[in-house]
Records
---
Amino acid sequence: MVENGYHWRNRELREHVAVIDGKVAPTKVLTNGIYLNVYTKQWLKANIWILKDRIVYVGGKLPDQTKEVELVDCAGRYLVPGYIEPHAHPFQLYNPEELAKHAAKFGTTTLVNDNLMWLFLLNKKKAFSLVEEFNKLPISMFWWARFDSQTALQDEEEIFNSETVLSWLENPSVVQGGELTAWPRLLRGDDRLLYWIQEANRLGKPVEGHLPGASEGTLNKMKLLGVTADHESMTAEEVMTRLRLGFQVGLRYSSIRPDLPEVLEGLVSEGINSYENLTMNTDGSTPAFYEKGLMNVCVAIAIEKGVPLADAYQMASYNVAKHFGFAGELGGIAPGKIAHINILDDKVNPHPVSVLASGKWIKKDQVTQSFNNPIDWHKHGVVPLTFDWTLTESDLQFSIPIGLDLENDVIIKPYAIKTDVTLEQIPEINSDAFLLLIDRNGKWRVNTTIRGFTKKLGAIASTYSTTGDIVFIGKNKQDILIASTRLQQLGGGIVVVHEGEIIFELPLPLGGIMFDGKMDDLIAKEKELKRILKDYGYAYSDPVYTILFLSATHLPYIRITQRGIIDVKKREVLFPAIMR
C-alpha cells in the first residue's frame, strides 16, 4: 500500500506512461462509462485504462494495443470511486480481513481501522508484521494510532508509552492519531497526551477526538490542542458547531447510534451549502448491521435525504482521502489513482453491480469473485486462548454493595444491591444477575451484579470484551461454571448456558475476540444470539456492544474494569479488583 506518498518504483512509473504511448498494453479498459469526476463534480463519459492496480488513463481514446486486454463495456453504467470507511473498529466479533472482504463486495474498498486490539493481543513487532500482511490485500487497509485504552488498565504504561505510540504514528500505514477518548485527561494537563498529539500533527496526520456532547468551549480548547476531527455529533446543530470551528466531521450510522438520517435531514433543511468537511462512518457496528454493506448504505441514505448527488458520493470517497492525506492515490477516478472503482446501474443507486479493488474484480456483474492472500493468523501470533487456571465456586463470592444498572445498551448507572447474592441462583422476580470480570490469565477478579441484562438466563460467558478479559453474566452459579469450562475448551468465544445445558456457542479462536470464518455465517450466529438473549429478558438492541462496553470508561457513569468498579466522572475506584 501507499508508503511515503507512493508505492510504484521508477521502472513501474515508466511502464505506466508507456501504456499511453502504445508501447505496453493495459490490463483492463472500462469503455463508454459515465464517471463521477470528484474535482469538477461532473458526470463525464470516458474510457478508463488500468494497468494492474493503477488507473493510467482517463479520456476519450482507446489503446492501440488491445490484444489480451480485458475490455469491459460500461455503456449505460455509472462509475464512482471505491468507497472509504474512515472509522472502522474491525474487531466486533469479525476479524479485519473478513470485514474488508465483506465490505468490498458492497463497494467499500478502503478502511481506516482502529489498532486497539493489536495493542492488547500482540507485541509491536508482530503487530507491524501483521499490518504489512494486510497491505497485500487488494482492499486498502489503513490504521489509527491509539493514545489511550478507553478503560482502566492495571498495566497501562506497558501498552501506552511514548515509544509504542510514536512508533505506531510513524508507521506508513497509520494515517491518524486517536480516536482520543481520554480528552478529559488532556484538559486536566496531561502533557504526554499533548506531546503525542503534537507529534501526529508534525507528521501531518490528523487527530480524531471522541467528544460526545462537548460544549463550545471544550471544542475550542480541543482545536487549540491539536484535535482536528470528531465523529460524535448526534444532531445537525452539533455538526454545524464543529464545522464552524474547522473540524472534519464524521456523520455516524451505526448499530448503537444510527444518527445519519436525522442529522442529514437537519443539515439539508438548514440549507448547508458545503459538504467538503463532512464524511460518513459506521463506527464499528456489530455484524448483522452490515448485512447489506457499509458505506453504500450511508451513500444511499444521503441521496434519499437530499444531499446533492456528487457530494453524497464524495462524503464516502474524496472527502475522506483528502482528510487523511492519501487523495493522491485514492478517492477519485483519475490517472495515478489506485484502481478502486464501483460500477453502478444508476447514478442514484450506490449499490454496485461490479467492484474493482486495486484493479482486481471483487464483484463482477453481481457475482462475488474470490482472491488469494489470506491472512495466516497463527503465523502472526493470533491464536486460540489457552488457560492454566480454572474458575471455581470460590471465585463466585459476591459481596460488593453497588451494582451496575443498564439504562440502555451502553449507559450504566450504579444501584444499591438489595437482592441476596449469597444464593446459588438469583430469583426471576427481579432483573439482577451475577456479574464477574476475570483476568484472562486468572490473576484477579471483580464480582458484582448487573441489572437489566437478563430476567432469567442461567449464564453467558464471553472472552470478547474491551480488554480481552472474561465476562460472566447470569442468574445461576453452576451455569456460570459450565459456561467457563466450555469457553476454555473452545479457546475463547461466547457461550450461553441455561439449566445446565449449553444453548449457544460462538467460537472466537482469533485471540478470543474474533471469529475465523465467513461474515455471512457470523451474521447468522449473531442474530441467533440476539434472539436467545431477548427471549431471556435482554431489553435493548445490541447485547454484543453491552458486553464490550462494560469496561469502557469513556461512557457514563460506572464501569467494571481491570482495576475494579470505577466511578467514571470522579475517576475513582469504588471497589478494587481482588487478586486470586
---
Amino acid sequence: MDANDSPSDDRSEVDAEEHDLDAPARDRTSDISGDVDIDDVLEDEDEDEDEDDNQGLFDDLLSGEPIFENKEVLRPSYTPHELPHRNEQINQMATILVSALRGDTPSNILIYGKTGTGKTASAKFVSKELESTSQKYDVPCEVEYINCEVTDTQYRVLAQLANKFIEKNRDVIDGRLDDLAALRSSVTEGDRTLADTRFDSLDAIDERIDTLEADREDMESVPMTGWPTDRVYSSFFEAVDYHERVVVIMLDEIDKLVEKSGDDTLYNLSRMNSELDNSRISIMGISNDLKFTDFLDPRVKSSLGEEEIVFPPYDANQLRDILQHRADVAFENGALTEDVIPLCAAFAAQEHGDARRALDLLRTAGELAERGQANTVEERHVRQAQDKIELDRVIEVVRTLPTQSKIVLFAIILLEKNGVHNINTGEVYNIYKRLCEEIDADVLTQRRVTDLISELDMLGIVNAVVVSKGRYGRTKEISLSVPVEETEAVLLSDSRLGDIENAQPFVQARFDN
C-alpha cells in the first residue's frame, strides 16, 4: 500500500457514496447534467403512458358485470345430470341395458329422432349411469362411443374400437403385473404365503408375469390406414375378447356410416357374439333418419333393430323448461330478462323442436350481450343472435360448395351487383363461361349449369322460379337469397378460385321494359 493512501480515505469515499444513495430524489427535469439526458427522461414517460394504454385494452372489456357463470353448460357436448321431458325414453334404455349388469347380453337398440331431440344426450347419460353402477357392483361393463359422421368407414370404426380396447387391455395388464410383483415381493420377504393364492410356487408367479408381458408386447395398435380390413377386424376381435366383459358400442349418426360404407360393419358387429368366448357385445345405434333401415340387409335389420326407441320433437313449453334448467347454471343471477327464454324457445320450436338450436341461440345471445358490455341479455340480443346463426349457416353451406357451384354462384353475384334483376339462365351461363376461361377451369354444359342452379335453389342460396315468356318459351328467373357481401367474401376466400376477383368480366346491365 502507498504511504499517501490511507484506510480512512477509502472509508470516507464509501460513506459519501452511501450518503448519495440515501439522499432524497431530486427533480429529474431540473437536474440536467452530463449524466442525465432530458430526451431519455421524456421517452421513458411516454413508454409508461403506452403501457397504461395497453393495459386498458382488456381492462375495459373486463370492467362490465359478468353474464355467464358456466358457458359450457349451453354447448351440445355437455351431458346434463338431468334431462327434462325424456324420462320415458331414459327408462326404456335402462330397462334394456340392465341385463348387462347381470352379465347377460343386452338387446341391440335403435334410437330415432330429429336433430336436437335429446337422443345423444340421453344415451350418454344412461351410459354414464351404466358404467358407474357396474363399478359399484364390480361387474365388467364398458360403453364405447363412436361418432359415425366423423368415423364413417368400416376400417376407421374397427380401428378406433380396436385401439380403445387395446389401450384398456394394456392398463389391465399393467395393473395385474403390479399386483403380481407386490405378491412375489411379499412372499420372498416372508410377509405372506401362497396358501391363499392360486399360485403354488414363485416359479408359477414368474411364469404368469412372463405370459402377461408377452401379451402386452403382442398388442399392436392399429394404424388409421394401410392394413387389410380382415386384419383390423381380427385385431378388434382379439382385443375385445381378451377378458370377460359386456360391451355396449354406441354408434351415433349410424345412418352416415351405412350411407358411406354400406352395412358390412353392422353385419360383422351383430354376428360377433356367436364367435366370442369371454365378452359380449351390444349395439346402440342413433339416427336422425327414420327410414335408413330400409336400405339394410334383412338379416342385419332383424338383429340390429331388436328394440326401437323414438324421440319426438320438443314443443315450445318443453324447450322453455330445458332452457330454464340450463340457464340457472349457465348465467349469473338476474342476467336474463323475462322474455329471453320464451323467445328462444319459440324460435327453436319453429325449427321442429330442436333443443340444440335453442341452446345455441341462448348462448349466442349471451355472447352478443357480453361483447356489447350490457349487464343483461335482452330480447334484442336474441333477435341479433337469430340473424347471426342464420348467416353463419349460410356461410358454412357456401364454404363447402363444390368449385363449379361456387363459380356459378359468383356469376349470379356479379349480375346482381351490376344491376341485373330477374336474371335468366342464359345470362348466368355467359358470365360463368368467361369466369371459367379466366381461372382456367373446365366449362360445363348449359344443362349441367342449370342443374347446379337448381341445387343452389334447393339449399336456399338462390331463388329460381320458372316463368313463361309466351312464344319465347320458359326460363328460370334467378335472384340471390343470401347477403351479397358476406357470400362474395366466402367465395373469394377459396384458394381454388384463384384470382377470380381480378378476373371479373364486363357485365352489361339489362334494361327491362
---
Amino acid sequence: MIARGIRYRPGRSVVVLLLAMAATAAAVLTPAYGYAAEQSLLTDELNSQNERATQLQLFAVRNSDVDYTEVPAQIGEAVDTLPAMQVYTDPVEFIRVTTHTTGGYYDARALLAYRQDVCDHLVMVDGDCQAGPGEVLLSKRSAEAERFEVGDSIGIKSVQGINVAHTEHEIVGIYEPADAGDQEYWGRSGYFSHGPDPDGVEFLDAMFVTQPQAADEFAEGMRMGVDYQLNLTALRDSDIDAILAALGRLEIPDGAVEGLTLTVDNNLTGIVEAIRDGQAQIRASVPIIAVPLLLLCWFVLYLVMARLTEERAPEIGLAKLRGLRYGSVTGFALGEALLLIVAAVPLGLLLGLGIVQVTAALVLAEGTSVTLRADVFGYAGLALIGSLLAVLAATRRTLRRPVLDLLQRVPGQTRWRAGLLEGGAVALAVAATAQVLLGDDNMVAMLAPALLAVVAGLATARILALIARVRLRRARRVGSVRRMLAMVQLARRTEHRRIVVLLTIAVTLLTFGVAAWDMSEHNRRLAASDALGADVIYQVDAANPGQLMDVVSELDPAADGLMGVMRTVERYGSQNFLVVAAQTDRMAEVMRWRDQQGPALDDLARQLHPPMGDPVLVEKSLRITATVEYAVADRPLQLSARIVEPGRAPRNMLLGPLEEGRSRYSADLIGCFTGCRLIGLGVARYPGDFSDISFALTVESVRDVDGEVPVLGDGQWHPTGTTPDNVTFDIDATESGLSLAATAADVPELIAEFQVAPAPLPAVLAGPAPYDDPAATRFRFPAAHGKPQHFEVVDTASVVPRGGTRALLVDLEYTERIAETFIDLSIKSDISYEVWATQAASVDLAERLESAGLTVLSTDSRLDQLDRMSRQPPALALRLYLLAGAAALVLAVGAVALTSAAGSRSRRDDDAALRLSGVPDSVLRRSMISEYGHWVGLPLVTGAVTGLIAAWLVLPSIPLITSGAGAGPVEYRLGSTWVPGALAAAVAALLVTVAMVWRSRRRGATPDRLRGGRS
C-alpha cells in the first residue's frame, strides 16, 4: 500500500524525498564543511609561508671526540623511522662552520660548508666541482672582490679557534649558484651573503667542499645535521598533533653517536598556533550558521507535510470510518513519508558531501577534499530524527480530528496563539541582540540574524492576519467582492501565515548573507591594497636604492607601470613603525591606495617630491680656491670636504691647513674614478686639539679633473646635523662663493652640507606621530640610515600601503640622498627592496629584473592576496551564510509552490463555484493578485528590512576579514549590486511561482469540476 501510494502521488513523493535529503545534506554540511575549511586554512597558511618557515633542521655541534662525517646520516636514520616524518621530503645532509679568511684583498669571514649533492646546484665558471681536503670552491663575486683566481691559496681557520693558525687551502673552482633562491635545497643557513654586515665585517659567499672529510680540521663550532622540507601536499590536519609530538621527543638513539645532543630547529609550532586560532573560529561559526539552515529545512518539511496530510484528510477519514485502529491509521497516513525520509538519509549524505567536495574544488585551497569522519554519520542520524519529528508534528493535528471533519472539503480553522516557541524565540533574539550591542560574544552574534529572522517572521504573520481582518471588515462594508475574496483567504487559511513566517525568514537570511558577503568582499579589496599597495609586488635583492631606481627607470622609462620601494622598520613605543620610501613620481600610475586615488595621488606626489638641485659629482681629484680672512686655533685648522664613494660610507678629505689670504687646496680622490658625491665643505680641527676655534673664509671655486664644478652659487647649503648651543656657524652662498664663519669649542669639525633633499623631509603619516606629541606635524625619528631625521607631515592617512596603520610614506630618491650623508645603505640588513608593478607591466617582469641585475626573492599579487583572503576564517564562515541564505530562498520558493499545489484542488473548486455564481474572471484574477501580493509582498519587504537591520547590528561584531598588524579600518558600506541583485532574484522567483500557481488554478477552475465531485 505504501509503495502504491508513492506511485500514485509521484510529484509529492519526490518533494518529500528532496526535502528530507536537503535536511540531511544541511546537517552533514556542518562537520564536513568545517573539516574541509580547516584543512583549507592549514594548506593556505603553510603555502603562504616562505620555504624557510616550513623547514625542519636537525643538527648537533661537534666535539673533538666524534667521527663527525657519519653524523648527518645517523641523524637521518634516527628520525626517518618515525611515522610523522612521512610529511617531510628527503633530507639534505650538511656540515658547516663559520671561518675567518686571509690572503685576499681584505680579511673576511665565510661559511665553509659541505652540502649533499651541492654540485647539482652550482654552475662552474672556472675549474671543476670537486673539492677534497685542503681545497675549496669560491663564488664568482667573492673571488672578484678578493681578487682570487683558480689555483690561488686562501687562509682559513674557525672563528672559534683561539690560538689556531690559518691553514692554506687551494681554490680549485669558481662557481655561481644555479638558483640562490631555491630555499627547498639551500635551507635557512644563508650560504650567499657576500658583503659587509651592519658592524662593517666583510662576509664572503660560502666556500664549498664536496667531501665531508674536507672539513676534518675544523672542530670548534662545526654544525652537522640534515635539512627537511615540509611536503605540503602530503600534510593533513589530522597529522599536525602527531608531528609536533614527534618533533618534541626526537633524539639520537643511544649508542649511535656518543656525546652529541640533537637540536630541533623548526618554526612549525608557532605557525600551527596561529592556524589553530583560525580553525577554532571556523569550528565555532560553522555550526551556528548551518544549524539554522537545518532547522529551516525541518520547518519546510513540517509545512509541506501538514499541507499534504490535510489534502489527504478525506482518505484518512475513510480509513477511520472503516474501523482501522489509531496505529493503523497513523501507519497509513505516515508510511509513505517515513519510508521516503529513511531513503533520503543516504542520498542526503551523498548530496551534502558532494556539495562540500564541489565547494572545496571551486573556492577552497588546492588539494582540499571531503574528510569522512564518524560524526558526519552522527549528524546524518540527527537529521533523520529531526525529520521524523517534523513529520509527526505536522500530521498530529489531522490524525486527531473527528471523521466528519476529515471528510468535509472545507479546511478546519485554527486560531493563531502565542506559544512557548514564539516567546522563546523572542527572548533568544533579545538576548543575542544585547550580546551584539555589548560586544560580549561574537559567536552568539552570528546566531542573532537567524533569531531576528524568526521574530520578524512571526511578527509579519501576525501583522498580516491583523491587516486581513481589518480590510475584510472594510470590504464587507463597501461591498468589494475582489477585496473580500482576497482577505477571507488570508484570514482563514493558517498555511498562509506559516508561509509568511518562512518567506520572511528566508528573505532575512538571504539579505543578511548577501550584505555580509558584499561588505566582506569590499573590505578584502581594501585589505589587499593595504597589504600590497600595487597589483603585483616583487621583493628583490638590490645593493642599494640607487641600483633599484636605475633598474626601474631602465625597464620603465615612461614611468607608467613600475615603481621602486624601500621599506625599513623602526621601534617606537614598543611597537613597530614602518617607513615606506617610494618613487613618488610613479605613484599615480602604480599605487593602489584606499585613501588616495587619481589626481589626489598626483598632488601628493608633488608634495613629497618638491624640486631640488641635483647631487654634485667630482672625479679623481678635488681643487679648491679659498680666501681665509682669519683662522684662530692652538693647532692649524684644515679645509675639509665630505664625499661619498659609491658603495661606501661618507668620509672627510683633508685638503690642507688654512692659511690667511687666497690659497689653493687640493687632494686626490682615491676610489672616485667613476665619480663621487661632494656633499659638504667645511673646517676640521687638528686631532687632539680641544681649544676654542674661530674662522672666516670664502670658497671661491671648486674644480675636479674635468674642470669647474658649478655648486657654490646655489643657496642650498646648511649646517650638517644640529648645531650645539656653544657653536655659531654662519653660511652664505652667493655668486661670489660660499662664505663660512664660525666660533666653536669641543666640536671636531664644522661642515656645510650641500642640500639635495628637502629639510625637513615631507611625509604622509598613518597613525599617531612617533613623538611625545602624537598630533605633531614636525618631529625627529630614526630613518633608514639609523640616525634621527627631521620629518614634516604634509598629509595623513588611515593606512600607508605596505606600511600599515603606523607608518610614514616618503620619497625614495630624497631618502637615499639624505642617508648617503651618514652611511652606506648596502650594509644595512634590515632594509627590504621591492618593485611594485601594474598588472600589465608585470608580464615577464621577473625575468627582466633578473637580467637587469636584481635577484627576485619572492612575488605576490593583489589577485593572489584576494584569493587567499577569500579562504580565511571570516570568508569561510560568511560564504556559508551566503549559501544558507540562497538555500533558504530556494526552500521557501519550493514551499510556496508545493503548498499552493497541494491546496489547488479546493481552490479550483472555490473558483469554479464563484464563476458559476457569476463572479467575473477579472475579479478573480485581481483578488488572487491582492491575496498573493499581501502574503508574498509583505514578507519580501519585512525580510529585506530585517536583514539590513541585522547586518547593521551584527556585522560590527563579526570579523569580516582577518585583520593583520597593518590592516586598515573596516568600512561598513554596501555596494550597488549584491543586495539589489539578490532581492531582484527573490522577487523574480516568487513571481514565476505565483504565475505558475495562477495558471494551474485557472486551467482547472471550470463549472464542470462541480459535477459529481470530479477533480
